[in-house]
Amino acid sequence: MLRPLLRSSPSRISSPLPRRYSHILASKRPAGDTRYGIALPGEARLQGRPLIAPSAIQVKRSFHATQRNQLGPVLPVLAGFLKASTTIEIARTAARIALTFVPVILIKNLKSRKELRWAEKTGKTDEARKELVLKRIRNRTILFHTLLFIPVLLFWATIAASLERTPLTGRWRLILLSPEEEEDIAGQLAGPGWYQAVGEILSQEGPPQLVSPSDWRFQWVQDTLRRLEYAIPVLQREHELVPHWADCAGEEGEVPLPPPADFPLRPRPRASEYLRRFAELTAARTVHPAPHALAGPPYSLLLVDKPDAANAFSYGFGPDGAGGVVVFSGFLDEVLAKHPSGEQVQEPQEESSWLTSAFRGLLGISQSPLRAHPQPTPEQTSQLAILLAHELAHLVLAHHIETLSSGSIIWPGIVSIVTDVFRAILFPVTMLFGPFVNDALAGMGKVGSGEFAKLTEYCTSQTQEVEADIVSARLLAHAGFDPRHAVHFWEERSGRELARTMECSPAKAERILNEPESTSLVRRWMGETHPMSYTRVQQLKRELERWERERADARARHLQEDLEHEREDQAQGPA
């Protein structure tokens, strides 16, 4: 029911970049357009030679959340094979095989040593027999260490292959999915797949009421989202595109710019590209692997007419609209009521046939009969941008893929391996009481695995929330919004969960929608939301303070360089 509606939405409206990025993408807005409280300049023209040719920067899906591996020519090939969801299952199978034969080897070695002790005690020592028994003990010991070494080596090699740094922040994380598996996930959500998946989440409380794409509220949210999206390509080449960041300190109404990130957004080659690169390197030729295009703008958007829900969430991963943001109208109502402008904008009434009206009723699209709507102020647009930038940061950093990998592959596999080890150790005891005790231990392992998965999911989610706040400040700055306003925005919501991210698990999304005040065991262990909200605000303040420190250091370095150049010029002048 959602796909016909959402695929027939009007063309997306582009929003301009700030003036300092006008050489990246020229605005297509007519001059003097001030819709939604945003002063949109006319088609920007570059004064003088541009820093980089405009054709060099394109808004496209050519980045990925994982930084390229910088290992030797052989290790990347092995890492390409090990970085897959099936590898940890192979390690688990190898561990089960080892645990099956290890007790047999230990028992046989125990019997062999008992035989040697008995022979020495009775004096019936046969040197040939003794040499044969010792040889068998040595062979079994080698086999014992080999059986234990293979699964351990395979497990840690898999963990090392999936270890990567999060872009823009540099946090170490584990994503045990190959590029091909990620593309398969993105392909399932591309196009109408995202709307279908989000529709299933929203339908848990009944058919959702969607705001029409022709509604002014939808256009306001969409324009703000597109304006933030245009800042994403800058995150790939901040050193080149924003060399003047130290001069933008946020004085006299100017937006402060962040220092270039040490870990920019960069593409990652495929496993097959690693093989091609290895072949080229053996032939003493330089080759640059072609990156796989994933996870970029434009993102999908849904506006749900739900006045009692003042929040938003992001969902999905991949290009072609496989990732997107869902905003509830309650948040817009809250923002519009906080800074009322008093100005009204008149729009011509849309003529629709009775057939269109009937389809709107069947699809659950609400349409306001009023054609006059309030004019959003810059303050209101800034608050909307802060919320959208937070959710957009989750998509840019591929947090949904990280949660899917850790919650569905890595931690369940680790818990399963540990459970198998304990069952193998306790098997000599449990075998005396029959198979039911062993089955009970297996059941307890499954229950513990579920609770442990919830615990790790909660901890990962909180880390991602802090990280999204930090990256959203960078997005806001490059899009022309003052990131310092985000501190006050989140401080006002320190006691509420306004913008919690729903990861790739529909079960978690449903839990957040239906049980916003969850009192699960995990939350009682880790604390309620207020301490976490305080931590988020403090981390965001520290990030902005770090910008100021690095800006001061950069200015000091520039001043020192200018003084040295002046001394050199003065020294060369008389000569």
Secondary structure topology:
Elements (H helix, E strand, L loop, with lengths): L2 H5 L67 H8 L4 H36 L4 H36 E3 L6 E3 L4 H11 L2 H11 L7 E2 L4 H14 L8 H4 L29 H12 L17 E5 L7 E5 L6 E6 H10 L5 E3 L7 H10 L1 E2 L5 E3 L3 H19 L2 H32 L4 H44 L6 H8 L13 H9 L6 H6 L2 H44 L3
Parallel strand pairs: 3-8, 4-6
Antiparallel strand pairs: 1-2, 5-6, 7-9
Helix pairs in contact: 2-4, 2-9, 3-4, 3-13, 6-16, 7-12, 12-14, 13-14, 14-18, 15-18
Model description:
It comes from Ceriporiopsis subvermispora (strain B) (White-rot fungus). Its cofactor is Zn(2+). Keywords: Hydrolase, Membrane, Metal-binding, Metalloprotease, Protease, Transmembrane, Transmembrane helix, Zinc. The chain crosses the membrane at residues 142-163. The chain is mainly α and 575 residues long. 55% of the residues lie in helices and 6% in strands. It contains 18 helices and 9 strands. The strands form 4 sheets. Strands 4-6-5 form a 3-stranded mixed sheet, with helices on both faces. A two-stranded antiparallel ribbon has the order 1-2. α3 (87-122) runs parallel beside α13 and α6 (192-202) crosses α16 (506-514). The longest helix has 44 residues, at 435-478.
